[in-house]
Amino acid sequence: MKRLDRHVCVVGLGHFGAALARSLAKYSEVLALDNDISRVSEISEDVQRALALDARDFGALAEVVSSDFDEAVVSIGESLEASILCTLHLKRIGVPMIRAKATNSDHAEILKSVGASHIIFPEQETAERLALRMRNSNLVDFIPLTGDFRVTDIVAPAAFAGKSLASLALRANYGVFVIAIKKENGTRFVFLPGPEDVIEPRDVLVMIGREEDILRASETGAGEPRLHRVAGGGWREED
User: Fold this and answer.
1) What spatial distance separates the first Cα and last Cα of the chain, rounded to whole Å?
2) At 35, which helix (H) or strand (E)?
3) 3-state DSSP call for residue 10?
4) Residue with more model confidence, 222 or 93
5) How many other C-beta atoms can be found within 10 angstroms of the C-beta atom of residue 72?
6) Distance, CA of 24 to CA of 130 (rounded, Å)
7) Cα–Cα distance between 193 and 58 in angstroms, integer?
8) How many CA atoms lie within 13 A of 188 on its CB side?
9) CB contact at 8 A, 112 and 119
10) How confident is the model over 47-70, as a mean pLDDT?
11) Which domains does the chain have, with CATH numbers?
12) pLDDT above 60 (res 31)
């Protein structure tokens, strides 16, 4: 069994929130919260923990959510007051990353002002796409293909910097192919790169392969320092 070492709280179990919680529960320890006991009951078998409570109540929320959580998602759609208060409470609790669903630009501005780190507009975001990006911050975007195959943009891991595609042997080591490289913040593209092409820090690699294989490749060297180019060539660690 995989070790679930990320702790995520999802508040609000409507259509988007419930789908997100179920997707996240494959890779993370998920606490799902809603004030509707029927919604909590529906999801209780699909996540690690599900509770009914009113997220507007700071005391109740602080009893089950702590600063030890890696992220929280506020997916409350029925009440602007509840989503704003919940975001504020999570900020006070000390959750380091708070993603909050907004219904319009004004709502988004208020959520950001009270502590939201990232705003979600559900009509532009799918629960599956957000869950994958939450799992690995190197993932930029993906397009689902047949089965579990994906075309995915990932930020090149620091461990890839200064190495050629031939030396990385991505097909042999991970079962993935690089079909393009976005360089210089996407202002230049290398399509169908050759084995001699060298990966530079902050390159975005467009990969095709199975979802799990792409995730394994994107997590290469996780925790290692990021690098940047220095005068005269080569790279050194960022301060």
Assistant:
1) 37
2) none
3) strand
4) 93
5) 29
6) 9
7) 53
8) 7
9) yes
10) 96
11) 7-130 (3.40.50.720), 137-237 (3.30.70.1450)
12) yes
Rounded percentage of the chain residues whose pLDDT exceeds 70: 80
Model confidence over 205-216: pLDDT tens digits? Answer: 988 888 889 888
- Please tell me the distance from the alpha carbon of residue 73 to that of residue 119, in angstroms, as a whole number: 10
Backbone φ/ψ region at 162: left (φ over 0), alpha (ψ -120 to 50), beta: left
Specify which residues 30 forms β-bridges with: 8
Cβ–Cβ < 8 Å for 72, 99: yes
Indicate the residue type of 28: S
Within 8 A by CB and 6+ apart from 72, the residues are 8, 9, 10, 11, 65, 90, 95, 97, 98, 99
Q: Are 28 and 4 in contact (CB under 8 A)?
A: yes
112-170 pLDDT, tens digit each:
999 999 988 876 666 766 776 676 665 555 565 666 787 788 889 999 999 999 999 99
Dihedral, CA of residue 26, residue 127, residue 75 and residue 98, to nearest 10: 70
Give pTM, 2 decimals. Answer: 0.60
Per residue in 172-221, pLDDT tens?
A: 999 998 988 988 776 788 888 899 999 998 899 988 888 889 888 988 76
Residue 26 φ then ψ, to 5° = -70, -25
Other Cβ atoms within 10 Å of 121 Cβ, number: 13
